[in-house]
Each structure stands twice: as structure tokens, then as C-alpha cells.
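2024-03-11 09:14:02 DEBUG pipeline.ingest accepted 1 chain
2024-03-11 09:14:02 DEBUG pipeline.ingest length=65
2024-03-11 09:14:03 DEBUG pipeline.predict start
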Amino acid sequence: MVNTMAIITAKELGSLQDQLKLEENLVRKFEAFAAETNDLALKNKYQDIASRHQKHFDALYAQLK
């Protein structure tokens, strides 16, 4: 059977790891912002942004499987 999984270079893997860390930090940052504000509209916006970055993280992570 032929292995159809793409092989990535060390540089590409490093770039993916860097981007995963960035997305993870952005999720945490916007979740913290949402927790700190009392403005409901702003809280919702921060939560939406955190969710978007979580989706980015999940998509990148899926590339490593």
C-alpha cells in the first residue's frame, strides 16, 4: 500500500507550530478580554473572535494528523 500522507519539511513543521502557538495565544487573549468586560456587545464580539481563532487552531492542528 502506498503512503499518501504528505511529508512536510522541518521548516514547514516549525511554521505550523509557530502559527498554532499564535492562534492559541489569541484564543486565550480574547477569552480573557471577554471575561473582563461588562459591556455585553463587546463581550460577544470578543467571544466571536476567540471562537474564530479556535477554528483556525483546529484547522491547523488537523493538518498535523
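2024-03-11 09:14:41 DEBUG pipeline.report The chain has one domain: 10-62.
2024-03-11 09:14:41 DEBUG pipeline.predict end
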